[in-house]
Each structure stands twice: as structure tokens, then as C-alpha cells.
């Protein structure tokens, strides 16, 4: 019997038993010209399958405004050419340490807590999105006329960690089937009773996610599903980093032993991540601390999604690659292929001063949304800003003496100016300005989103100022707001027309310059003296940098660079430097 199916004790492919040895590789976190190299690395690791999420917000930044949904189809074609199978996880929610867990800001800004439920308005948007998205998946299913690589499709994602609306889950499964998905469906959840009971569906394969303790995890799964294949859909072989925290590393031997335990149980596995890649263009999400409730301080994710994976952010094998390859080789039908030749790297280090500069106000005037006055501060969602920043301007009336200035409901970080002079930085944890403000005064708050929450009960919370600005105990009204979306920088001519030429060292604003490259290839960009912002090289957004660490440089994919002069823009939001360097 042709096709992929779920048997009583395991998986079958074209009538033969098969064990899935899969690895997560997200097409949207890897430059397209490097997909084939990374897929060849997965094969050399000993894998026969690749798994990818699909981020809805990346492909539909506004209602009905679809952007390169075809990228998923091109990736699946590359997977087939590489001789791998594919597992697709379309969401609509994906977590993935991705902005808003993949849900569009324009949707969660309207439906709020009704997201990820049976709510008709929410499901209407999901249905429309799925009908478009699945046109890239359905023709590429294994067993179909196209002979594609797709063998399984996920229903939602770790839903038992969030909710218990089985009607919602069943509706998603019906949507997938109605759109033409014929391969097996599955769910994935943590190996805990409330997660498995809340996130699984009768008649749909249930899988579990964990980083260690395979025997105990599968025993818990068997309490809920006495038969069927065992699979760890996310074997957390590494972890991700937060800005201002320590870099997370997992010992290669420890991770390899945990992988071996999974396979000794007779189970299939998906390495999360096999190759993490990069959160380009400011798409990194954020978590909430506070333990199991995930309701504490904001913990924004760094730009690198290296994940301490077997294949690092630059596509290179690590010690974990070799340790995993030794384990996986025991389950291979023959000798494993050798890794592909390394991709080119930068021929020689280069640095340059960024001599041209324009103040943030000039950038906002050229690229920002129209300014309007509001009774109270609007959120990013109300201004239709997904990634970027908002300038809130208001007046402290007078005459009046100096009093504390504070912000309620601040998300996430505000640089405050009083009468044009920098007065301090406010955060959720420190919402009161250190220096009292007297009236009459003009106050500006430049608020940047550090990434929308991607996991937990505060998923979908608004960005910007959700409460109000107070002078002593009095709310200040008549707030003028203007947003600056990061995708406004995608139009290079508009950026070049921003008035510049001033001296910007130590000041926020847009820095511009050029790097002369000999021997284009993979590189790392360093920004000594710069504090926090975003970088573009030849119009490609490398993502956020921040001097708090732990990330100290930004990955530059080789295809982004060119021989000779390369254009660099740095949008600095606090205190700028002078030079940048490629290594």
C-alpha cells in the first residue's frame, strides 16, 4: 500500500515499517540560497526527515495581504530534491520563539483572549489563511500524483499548554481535511496529564515533547494512548537565549545519551532544533518569566536562533553533530553521507566608519505612519505597527512644580525626552522617571517592541502603552502618536532620501555607510559602541542587536554580501557608535 500511515505499533511507508529520524529546520530562519546546504547537512547527520513550522504573521502582515506564501512550496521542493521526508506544522499558532507565536498582530489586537478558541471571528480568519497556505502543502503530499515529501501535518501546536477547547481542535482538523490534507494528522504536547488531555484529539496521533527522561515521557503517553507509534516531536537538544541573560549550552554527551534513550524505546524523533538559524528582521519573540505561570517579567529572545543545535547558526557541524551522528548511524540502512563542502566565508575582515547620520525624527518623518492625536496612548495594534517603535508626544500643562512622571501598562521599553533632552529609560519594572518633571513641558516617549509574547497565557498582549501616562496622580491626555514599522525600510530609495550628513556619534538615529568586501561569504557583523537597534546590509535586515548580550555579533549570510561596496544602515535607538566591522 502506497503512502505514509500510522500503524498499531509504528509508522509504515509504502507498506514497510519506518522510523522517522527528523530534524527541525525552519525555512524562514535560513537564507533561501542556503536551504540545500542545510538540508544536505541534515542527511549527513543521519536524518531522513525535516520538520518546519509556518509563521502566519510573516506571510500575511495585513488582512488579505499575502507575502511569498510560495516560499513554503519552494522549500518542500528542495526537501524532496534532498531525498528527505517533510513534517509540516502550520499552526495557526506555532510558538517557536517567534513574534506573537506566529499569530498576526492585527488579529490578536482584535480578538484578544478569543484567539486559539472556537470563536467564529478568529476561526473565520484561520479558515481563510489555511485555504491559501495549504495550496502549498496538498500537492506535495507523499502518495499523491506529485510524489511529494510531506508525510504528516500537525493540528495546532502544544495546545494543551494553553487551552482545553476540543471543539476548536476538532474544527482545525476538519479544516485541514477539507482543504485536501490526506496524510496523517498529529498533535504534540508535553508529557503531562493536563497537556495531553487538553491538547490531543480522538483519532489523531498524539506525540510528546521533552528534553530528557524518554522512558517516563513515553510511559505517560501510553497512559493516554495505549497503542500507536511513539514519537518525541520535539527533542530539545539545546535551548534559546534571552537578551540580558546567560548563553545556554547543553553538553553534547548528555544530549546524545538522551537521544539514544529515545531510540532505544523504539520511538521516532524530531530534533528541535537540528539547525536553528536566525531571527532576521526583528521577528524574535519573547517569553514571560515567573515560573510555571509564565506571567512575570518580559524576557525577549535574541536574534540568533543557534539553539546550541548540532548544526550551528553558520551551518557548521558542532561537537553535538558528531555525537548525534554516532548515535543515528546505528539506525541507518547503510553508511551515512559525508557532510557537504562548507559554504564560502568572508575572505578578509573589514571595518568602516558610518559617516552619514540622520536623527530619529527625520527617519520618522520620512518612513513613519501619519501622526494623529488620541485621548489616551494607542497601542501598537491600534496603530498597525507589528515590529518597530512608536513615538508618543504629549504636554505636561503648567505652570506646575516638579512631580513624578510615570507610565501604566508599558510594553516594553521607553526612552524619554523632556523638552528635547534625554531624561531616562522606563520599563515595565521601572515605570517612574527618575527625575521629576515640571510644567509646562513637552514629553516624548520612544517605545520599542522587544518582541511579542510567544508562549503562555499572555500570548497576544498588546504592545506600546496599554494604560496611560501620569503626572503625579493625573492622567495626561491629548497624546500624539506616530509609528515606525521595520518593513518601511524595505524600500531602499525611501531610506536613501532621508536627510542626513550630520554627526551622530553617541546619538540615536539612522547611521549609513559602506563596507568594501573582498571575498564575499558568511560573516559576523560587530557594532562596537552601539547600544540597541537594527542593522540592514544591502537592504537585508539582519535583526536586532543589543549591547546587554549575550549575543555580541549578528550573522551575515554569504548571499547577502557582494564583492566591492556593500551598503550598511544602522538604526540606533539609544546611544550610537561610529564604526562597524565584518569578521
From TrEMBL:
PANTHER family in alphabetical order: BETA-GALACTOSIDASE RELATED
Native source species: Streptomyces alfalfae
Keywords: Glycosidase, Hydrolase
Keyword Cell division: no
Domain Glycoside hydrolase 35 catalytic per the UniProt entry, residue ranges: 11-330
Family of the protein in this entry: Belongs to the glycosyl hydrolase 35 family.
Database matches in InterPro entries: B-gal_1-like, BetaGal1-like_ABD1, BetaGal_gal-bd, Galactose-bd-like_sf, GH, Gly_Hdrlase_35_cat, Glyco_hydro_35_CS, Glycoside_Hdrlase_35
Keyword Hydrolase listed: yes
Domain Beta-galactosidase 1-like first all-beta residue range list: 377-478
Domain Beta-galactosidase galactose-binding: 508-566
Protein name per its UniProtKB record: Beta-galactosidase
Pfam families (alphabetical): BetaGal_ABD_1 (PF21317), BetaGal_gal-bd (PF21467), Glyco_hydro_35 (PF01301)
Amino acid at each position: 500500500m502506497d503512502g505514509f500511515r500510522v500503524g498499531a505499533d509504528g509508522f509504515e511507508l509504502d507498506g514497510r515499517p519506518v522510523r522517522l529520524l527528523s530534524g527541525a529546520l525552519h525555512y524562514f530562519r535560513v537564507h533561501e540560497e542556503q536551504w540545500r546546504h542545510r538540508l544536505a547537512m541534515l542527511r549527513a547527520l543521519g536524518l531522513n526527515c525535516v520538520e518546519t513550522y509556518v509563521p502566519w504573521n510573516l506571510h500575511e502582515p495585513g488582512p488579505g495581504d499575502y507575502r511569498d506564501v510560495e516560499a513554503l512550496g519552494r522549500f518542500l521542493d528542495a526537501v524532496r530534491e534532498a531525498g528527505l521526508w517533510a513534517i509540516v506544522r502550520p499552526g495557526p499558532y506555532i510558538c517557536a520563539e517567534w513574534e506573537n507565536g506566529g499569530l498576526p498582530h492585527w488579529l490578536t489586537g482584535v480578538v484578544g483572549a478569543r484567539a486559539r478558541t472556537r470563536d467564529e471571528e478568529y476561526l473565520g480568519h484561520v479558515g481563510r489563511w489555511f485555504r491559501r497556505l495549504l495550496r502549498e502543502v496538498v500537492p506535495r503530499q507523499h502518495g499523491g500524483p506529485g510524489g511529494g515529501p510531506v508525510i504528516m501535518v500537525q493540528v495546532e501546536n502544544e495546545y494543551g499548554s494553553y487551552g482545553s477547547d476540543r471543539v476548536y481542535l476538532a474544527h482545525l482538523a476538519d479544516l485541514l481535511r477539507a482543504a485536501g490534507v490526506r496524510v496523517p494528522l498529529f498533535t504534540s504536547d508535553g508529557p503531562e496529564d493536563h497537556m495531553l488531555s487538553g491538547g490531543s484529539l480522538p483519532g489523531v496521533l498524539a506525540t510528546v515533547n521533552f528534553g530528557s527522561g524518554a522512558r517516563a515521557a513515553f510511559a505517560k503517553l501510553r497512559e493516554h494512548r495505549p497503542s500507536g507509534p511513539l514519537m518525541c516531536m520535539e527533542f530539545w537538544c539545546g535551548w534559546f537565549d534571552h537578551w540580558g541573560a546567560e548563553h545556554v549550552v547543553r553538553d553534547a554527551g548528555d544530549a546524545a545519551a538522551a537521544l539514544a534513550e529515545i531510540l532505544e524505546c523504539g520511538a521516532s524523533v524530531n530534533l528541535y532544533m537540528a539547525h536553528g538559524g536566525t531571527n532576521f528582521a526583528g521577528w524574535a519573540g519573547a517569553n514571560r518569566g515567573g515560573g510555571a505561570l509564565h506571567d512575570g517579567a518580559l524576557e525577549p529572545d535574541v536574534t540568533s536562533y543557534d539553539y546550541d543545535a548540532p548544526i550551528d547558526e553558520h551551518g557548521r557541524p558542532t561537537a553535538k553533530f558528531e555525537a548525534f551522528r554516532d548515535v543515528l548511524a546505528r539506525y541507518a540502512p547503510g553508511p551515512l553521507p559525508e557532510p557537504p563542502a562548507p559554504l564560502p566565508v568572508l575572505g578578509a575582515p573589514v571595518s568602516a566608519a558610518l559617516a552619514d547620520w540622520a536623527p530619529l525624527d527625520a527617519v520618522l518623518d520620512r518612513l513613519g505612519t501619519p501622526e494623529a492625536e488620541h485621548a489616551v496612548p494607542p497601542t501598537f495594534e491600534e496603530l498597525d505597527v507589528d515590529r518597530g517603535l512608536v513615538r508618543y508626544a504629549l504636554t505636561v500643562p503648567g505652570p506646575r512644580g516638579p512631580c513624578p512622571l510615570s507610565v501604566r501598562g508599558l510594553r516594553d521599553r521607553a526612552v524619554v525626552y523632556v523638552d528635547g533632552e534625554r531624561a531616562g529609560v522606563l520599563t515595565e519594572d521601572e515605570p517612574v522617571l527618575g527625575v521629576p518633571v515640571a510644567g509646562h513641558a513637552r514629553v516624548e516617549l520612544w517605545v520599542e517592541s522587544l518582541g511579542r509574547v510567544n508562549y503562555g497565557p499572555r500570548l497576544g498582549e498588546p504592545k506600546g502603552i496599554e494604560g496611560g501616562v501620569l503626572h503625579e496622580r493625573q492622567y495626561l491626555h491629548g497624546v500624539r502618536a506616530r509609528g515606525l514599522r521595520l518593513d518601511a525600510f524595505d524600500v531602499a530609495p525611501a531610506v536613501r532620501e532621508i536627510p542626513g550628513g550630520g554627526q551622530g556619534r553617541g546619538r540615536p538615529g539612522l547611521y549609513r555607510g559602506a563596507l568594501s568586501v573582498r571575498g564575499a561569504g558568511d560573516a559576523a557583523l560587530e557594532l562596537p559602541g552601539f547600544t540597541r537597534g537594527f542593522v540592514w546590509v544591502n537592504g537585508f535586515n539582519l535583526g536586532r542587536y543589543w549591547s546587554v548580550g549575550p549575543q555580541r555579533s549578528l550573522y551575515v549570510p554569504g548571499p547577502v554580501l557582494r564583492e566591492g561596496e556593500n551598503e550598511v544602515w544602522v538604526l540606533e535607538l539609544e546611544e550610537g557608535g561610529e564604526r562597524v566591522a565584518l569578521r
